[in-house]
Amino acid sequence: MAVNNTNSNMGDKEDEELSKLLERKARELAKAVGNEPVELSADNFDDFVRSRKVVVVDFWAPGVRRVSYLSQS
Q1: What is the pTM of this model?
Q2: Which of 44, 73, 72, 37 is nearest to 58 (CA)?
Q3: Is residue 72 left, alpha or beta, with left meaning phi > 0 and alpha meaning psi from -120 to 50?
Q4: Residue from 65, 68, 40, 60 nearest 52 by CA
Q5: Quick check: 60 and 66 in contact, CB under 8 A?
């Protein structure tokens, strides 16, 4: 019995194209907003978040080892 892998191969190609688009968009966003980290506190947090369209906040505590859970598979 023959198996048609056309849909499977097309899905792989679409996944690859989507990944490329997402990577390009991420680079564009990073360039537009700057890549410099900003130290936020209770005093400046609200103003900082309100002043931007997109904000990524990385919460961590001194002395606690940071672990990255994101990986490319």
Answers
A1: 0.39
A2: 37
A3: beta
A4: 40
A5: yes
State the residue for tokens 């990524």: 56
Task: Answer whether residue 73 shows pLDDT above 50.
Answer: no
From the CB of residue 2, how many other CB atoms can be counted at a distance below 10 Å? Answer: 4
- The contacts of residue 54 (CB under 8 Å, 6+ apart) are 29, 33
Cβ atoms 22, 30 nearer than 8 A: no
Indicate the residue type of 2. Answer: A
Report yes or no: 40 and 50 within 8 Å, Cβ to Cβ.
no
Measured distance CA(68)–CA(65) in Å, rounded: 10
- Confirm if 33 and 52 have CB atoms less than 8 A apart: yes
Contact call for residues 30 and 24 (beta carbons, < 8 A)? no
